[in-house]
Amino acid sequence: MITPLKLSLSIVFLSLTFNLLFSIILYFSFNNKNNLKKIIEFIVTLPIFLPPSVIGYMLIIFLGKNSFIGKVFYNLFSFRFIFSFEGAAIAAIIVSLPIIYQGVKVGFDTIDKAYIETAQCLGVSKLNMIKYVYLPLSYRKVFSGVILGIGRAFGEFGATILIAGNIPGRTQTLPLALYSAIESGNYSSANEVLIILLFFSGLFLILYILLTKKES
């Protein structure tokens, strides 16, 4: 079970890193009244309301070997997203991005504007404002969203199996390993995977509870 666990944790790390950076960049890239930002936010949030199978099928349409993007990557790098680790990572990124972005947006929006205006008057750069004003004052809400996003990426199944398949040692994450073990009647392996999934899910939940607990 080491390989599926390593793959799952690697995918979680990649999706977390990309989504957190993307969410912060998107938040500061446009004025809140900008129509383009509203369109991007709509697209980013849509996966919450889509079945994972729909997301997986859309990834096949946009990244498959016959798609424009798929052809470009294959012609330039001889690389295919289908049945690849990268495909699994993209699926996890897409399903968890809406959750992480909402955490960042809600966290940053609830900061007292007086702190932001003071920092601006002092000539603090945008990067330092993020480091020393935004994140310290909103870390509970931001990282609550991050933990929920991690949990969503860690448990991703439907979109992953469509775009990346279920290849042991290559794209088989823990949820897919559990599916394979049950399908083949190997309940001993299935129980091992179940215990690992329950452990990490419980860990994520504990972290979420601690972050959302009201300060005394």
TrEMBL record:
Gene3D superfamilies: MetI-like. The chain crosses the membrane at residues 7-30, 42-64, 76-101, 193-211. InterPro entries: MetI-like, MetI-like_sf. It is found in: Cell membrane. The keyword Nucleus does not apply. Its main location: membrane. Keywords: Cell membrane, Membrane, Transmembrane, Transmembrane helix, Transport. It holds the Pfam family BPD_transp_1. Residues 5-211 form the ABC transmembrane type-1 domain. GO terms for biological process: transmembrane transport. GO terms for cellular component: plasma membrane. It is a multi-pass membrane protein. Belongs to the binding-protein-dependent transport system permease family. PANTHER family: MOLYBDENUM TRANSPORT SYSTEM PERMEASE PROTEIN MODB (PTHR30183). This is ABC transporter, permease protein. It comes from Cetobacterium somerae ATCC BAA-474.
